[in-house]
Design a protein that fits this description.
By secondary structure, the protein is of the alpha+beta class. It has 2 domains: about 240 residues, no CATH class; about 90 residues, no CATH class. Helix content is about 60%, strand content about 15%. A hairpin with a 5-residue loop joins strand 3 and strand 4. The protein is elongated and about 95 Å long.
Length: about 375
């Protein structure tokens, strides 16, 4: 008996591990190619900080990759054993399909616990630190947000372009100021510019620009058709200041998403309500509390999906009975898409009276119910 259990466990662990690794690679690679590589190429972060960013990505994607990996792994393992008549031989020894699948389900249950821990503690911390590192690079060196040769619109009311960047120095610097309607009000060109973070007398974050060999062209108010001559000013060295608090969010005003909260923070949000104003009505507070409760349940339901999808994969693999990887991968993709479609539909419900914290469990209950039904039917044959 122990030999058969080890065989089933080994087959499932190897296939599931390979599938999970593939999904993790795909998910992490997307972020590396977009955010991390761009941050390194633009000089916003150093090479070592880029490696740290890559490391912080893994805890965030692993809870999403584990359900898909175990689903695919169980389909592959049991599909191969079914096609090679190994399951038939095990049944002939007196074991039913549920007993045969017990090692694989125990593995899935253990990984579900691991996924819950990642969802509730490790992933929120990693996601927060990932964002802090990206934002912190802009805080320490505001010039790092300027990609040479490209237009930058991160600073409110401004469009900035620089031909080159050398550390904190921007060369062939252009700055266009626009009003609330997007109309040009001022053009600034300088041979060099240095950007620095500062704090105004009101405690607000500002962008301080030190210009060298600068030329300022200012349009007259109300001159929408360039009918009046603009005023020009030149300066060997000058400083300008612009509001830029949104670029330097850190510390207390660093805005975190609800899914980035740890267990203790979610429990506090459940008690006080998520983003509830001091003078909020009872209904608004209930919505804030329900949003936090739903997020907590979403973390737990997502972790439980590691087990529920693996459970469903056992009878599906027996019915498909194919050892080909692409067939099992296609079945896994179809099941996963159906599951996440149901989960997304449940997540759209916001009204506390409809109990979205309970609706988020409906996909798992449907999957477990279907798996139990199919397993009982498969055990009869």
């Amino acid at each position: 008996m122990r030999i058969l259990d080890r065989h089933v466990l080994t087959e499932t662990a190897v296939a599931g591990g390979a599938a999970t690794g593939a999904f993790v690679f795909v998910m992490v690679a997307g972020n590396i190619l977009t955010q991390v590589s761009n941050a390194i190429a633009s000089g916003r972060v150093s090479g070592w900080e880029g490696l740290e960013l890559v490391g912080l990505l893994f805890p965030g994607v692993l809870p999403y990759a584990l359900p898909l990996g175990m689903l695919t792994g169980v389909l592959m393992a049991f599909g191969r054993m079914s096609s090679q008549q190994e399951l038939t031989a095990m049944k002939a020894s007196g074991r039913d399909l549920g007993r045969i699948a017990l090692p694989a389900l125990l593995l899935a249950g253990g990984l579900a616990v691991l996924s819950a821990w990642l969802n509730l503690e490790i992933a929120p911390y990693s996601n927060t630190e990932y964002r802090r590192l990206l934002v912190g690079s802009a805080k320490d060196n505001p010039a790092s947000v300027i990609a040479p040769g490209k237009l930058n619109r991160q600073f409110p009311g401004m469009v900035i372009r620089a031909a080159e960047r050398d550390g904190e120095v921007l060369r062939d610097f252009w700055l266009w100021s626009v009003d609330d309607h997007g109309r040009l009000t001022q053009t600034i060109h300088a041979r060099e510019a240095r950007l620095a973070r500062a704090v105004s007398d009101k405690g607000e974050g500002i962008l301080r620009v030190t210009l060298t060999d600068a030329r300022l062209e200012k349009r007259q108010a109300g001159d929408e058709n360039f009918a009046r001559p603009s005023s020009f000013t030149t300066a060997g060295t000058t400083q300008l200041e612009f509001p830029a608090s949104g670029i330097f969010k850190d510390g207390e005003n660093f805005q975190r998403k609800l899914r980035w909260l740890t267990t203790s923070e979610l429990l506090e949000a459940i008690d006080k309500g998520w983003q509830v104003a001091p003078g909020a009505t009872r209904k608004e507070k209930e919505r804030g509390q329900m949003a936090a409760m739903t997020q907590l349940m979403a973390h737990l339901a997502g972790a439980f999906s590691v087990f529920s999808l693996a459970f469903l994969a056992v009878p599906l693999a027996v019915r498909v009975g194919r050892s080909e990887t692409f067939v099992n991968a296609a079945v896994a993709l179809g099941v996963a898409l159906s599951y996440y479609l149901l989960t997304s539909m449940a997540a759209y419900v916001k009204d506390p009276d409809l109990r979205p914290d309970l609706l988020i469990w409906v996909p798992n209950l449907l999957v477990v119910g279907l798996a139990w039904f199919l397993l009982r039917r498969a055990s009869r044959h």
